[in-house]
Amino acid sequence: MVKVTCSQLCEIAMALEACDVIFICVIQNDQEMLIPEGFEARIEAKGKWLIIKGWVPQVLILDHKSVCGFLTHCGWNSLFEGVSSGVAMVAWSVMAKQFYNAKLVTDVLQIGVSIGDVEWSATSTCDGVKREEIERAVARVMDVEDGEDMRMRA
């Protein structure tokens, strides 16, 4: 129901590249053309990042011992999968119950960091979050102390 805009995908890509953390980025096949020009070549040259186009076995990925963080839209399934895998989360709620779920993750359970809108909205746009905000959230989730505390609570 929610489509990521070209400009937002660019912000995500640039933030992940700037964080210099190992990541798996999953995009839908119809969004392949939205990947910033040269991004795949730059991360491929580093040899430690992966872009997957299409469906992935999310639970298997999250359960892997090297996965520490998860950027999620805060749908119930994703939250259950993240918690059961013991990963910290970057909570990016977009619409409906996702805002309440993000509050559960960040304020109650304290297993994640929120980005984007933090109040309920009936709209379903995934746009407007700048790379600096994404970088800060990813850095906190991947931090040795903060991130490890979040993972232990999860």
Commentary on this structure:
The chain is α/β, with parallel strands linked by helices and 154 residues long. It has a single domain (3-153), classed as Glycogen Phosphorylase B (Rossmann fold), CATH 3.40.50. Helix content is 45%, strand content 15%. The protein is globular, with a radius of gyration of 15 Å. The model has no long low-confidence stretch (mean pLDDT 86). Belongs to the UDP-glycosyltransferase family. GO terms for molecular function: UDP-glucosyltransferase activity. Keywords: Glycosyltransferase, Transferase.
What's the structural blueprint in terms of helices and strands?
Layout lengths: L2 E2 L1 H14 L4 E4 L11 H8 L3 E4 L4 H6 L5 E4 L3 H10 L2 E4 L6 H11 L3 E3 L10 E2 L4 H12 L3 H8 L1
Parallel strand pairs: 1-7, 2-3, 4-5, 5-6
Protein traits:
glycosyltransferase; globular; UDP_glucos_trans; Rossmann fold; 154 residues; transferase; two-stranded parallel sheet; UDP-glucosyltransferase activity; three-stranded parallel β-sheet
Write a compact overview of the structure shown.
The protein is an alpha/beta fold and 154 residues long. The protein has seven helices and seven strands, in the order βαβαβαβαβαββαα.
Largest sheet: 3 strands, parallel
Tell me the name of the CATH class: Alpha Beta
The count of strands amounts to: 7
Average pLDDT number: 86
Uncertain segments of ≥5 residues (pLDDT<50)? none
Share in helix: 40-55%
Total number of distinct structural domains: 1
Radius of gyration: 15 Å
Secondary-structure element order, N to C: EHEHEHEHEHEEHH
Approximate shape: globular
- How is the largest sheet built, in terms of strand order? 4-5-6
Family: Belongs to the UDP-glycosyltransferase family.
Keywords: Glycosyltransferase, Transferase
GO molecular function, one term: UDP-glucosyltransferase activity
Pfam families: UDPGT
